[in-house]
Amino acid sequence: MAYASCGILGRVPDAIWSVLIDPNRRAILELLRERPRAVGELVDALDLSQPATSKHLRVLRDAGVVRVEQDAQRRVYTLDPAPLAELDAWLAPYRRLWNARLDTLGRYLDDTKET
Amino acid sequence: MAYASCGILGRVPDAIWSVLIDPNRRAILELLRERPRAVGELVDALDLSQPATSKHLRVLRDAGVVRVEQDAQRRVYTLDPAPLAELDAWLAPYRRLWNARLDTLGRYLDDTKET
DNA sequence: GAGGCATATGCCATGCAAGGAATACACGCC
DNA sequence: GGCGTGTATTCCTTGCATGGCATATGCCTC
To answer: Which domains does chain B have, with CATH numbers?
Structure first.
């Protein structure tokens, strides 16, 4: 949310970091970015066993970046990007730094153009 | 740099992710955000042994997020935020999503106000 | 060039996260 | 109520990253 990207919230929960560590979990996030999917779909898309996939989904659930909805025997997972805003907030101060660098580069280019 | 935050580069290198996993490494980044520091300074600031600190610095160096400069026996580390732009690029599609949510929320609030 | 300081590296032990296999659980259908 | 499908959980093993300790390396001073 807005207050998160303003940097007021400060600390990124460990759960969020641990989500990002794993490539498979990042892959799941990207798949869910497209549309909600049942577990079986994810299993097919990733090259992973069903139990392994379920375990990753558990981590994602605990971190709050996905939500489950039950549809008969299937469980459909949906992306909830909100917690990632914390990550964005964490990144903000660094973003300022590399933007400063870009500004410097920009001025340099302008100056050389004038020469 | 610019091309990174434009999202052209796509994949965040594994090295960047592995940097972020560790709380101590994130702490080092934050310390260096303030100003460049020698290893000894970092050892004091973190609650870590000197060897452990050096190992983390190695990881950070390999990922390209810090640079070293030698000053007699001391090595002064400086933050280089550029590679973090890749992370920013990775985050971009998700940012769009939570912004969309905020817009929805905004409209909802506007509507209820009108009622 | 010997000794002392600052940092890096090697080796070892420990802990922990990830994946596989088997199994438990939940739901719908006949 | 038994059965098949879809998903979660448990147990176990393995690999890997972390940190401490000891030690190597580099540099400066006397």
So the answer is: 2-114 (1.10.10.10)
